[in-house]
From TrEMBL:
Belongs to the eIF-2B alpha/beta/delta subunits family. Pfam families: IF-2B. One of its GO terms (biological process) is L-methionine salvage from methylthioadenosine. PANTHER family: METHYLTHIORIBOSE-1-PHOSPHATE ISOMERASE (PTHR43475:SF1). Keywords: Isomerase. This is S-methyl-5-thioribose-1-phosphate isomerase. GO terms for molecular function: S-methyl-5-thioribose-1-phosphate isomerase activity. It comes from candidate division MSBL1 archaeon SCGC-AAA382F02.
Amino acid sequence: MMPSEELPVLVDLHKNVFFDNETEEVVILDRRKLPEEITQYRCENFEEVAKAIEQMVTQSLGVSPAAGYGIAIAAYEVQEGSKGKMRNNISKAAKRIKNTRPTQTSLHYLIDEMTELAEKTISENGNLFEVLHQRAYEWTEHLMTVSKKLGKHTSDLINDGDTILTHCYGGPAIYLMGEYARKDGKEIDYFCTETRPYLQGARLTSFALSQGDFDVTLVTDGMPAYCFKEGLIDKFITGADRIAMNGAVANKIGTYQIALGAKRHGVPFYALSYTGPDSGTATCEDVDVEERDPQEVKHVRDARISPKEINAFYPAFDCTPPEFVEGIVTDRGVYKPEKVS
């Protein structure tokens, strides 16, 4: 696999989120500005990190590293304070940041782990910021390692000449599966949905893939069933924000309806899981779906596209039942939904 420094900026998570020791800030690649410009969003405290997550400065696999660095900067804010002040600020930061993404398993897992690590470090009179900063870095590196494993496992499912449909931006593995396939002598093309209302597919997925010289075709969110019917798509592959114990897949809104079309036309749907099944989520019924500001549906990149007086509705995620899922790809391999737990 190509070295990390050669990966497109969106694919290399260490370039997406990090702590700048010189300016004492958490630095986040501002995905809202892509593809027109590559710019950084700087956060001086955990509240600014939380707002960055809420405002979609980062998304997909950039969220949990941002959360981790948010906890680290919370420690930095009180590094000269008492143990009580440290505990209080870490607790406030954890609660605030967890509320930014109720659906994303990896964020909650990491925050809980870092909260426990913080308590242990405080009790042992350790360097709280140094320990939490290191854990945030290690978590980001872990996600890169998992991404490569997912990319390799998924590439083994792909045949030479396949066209892959993807939805939203499913993290580095969406890019890496193509790289591994190419390394094995297989050429693949991608179709990307635009992914309303933030256009992650149009702005992010297509950007990363085009930087890798893949052939990319953009379609609107309403086109997948037609593409399946016309035989234009061989596999439907996305990321997953959460995997239920029964193999159901929680992901960006629209995934479920595309999976329905894929099933109807015999196109297999594979979901890439960076964290594996969530033991606290038995079925789709247990997924807490985030509902975002309806005004976001009525605008595209700050331009209003509908009458002011109408209503809008924006559940940010949906959940695809296991019967519509061909396989779950984890760092350990590919599993049928009923076998993933």
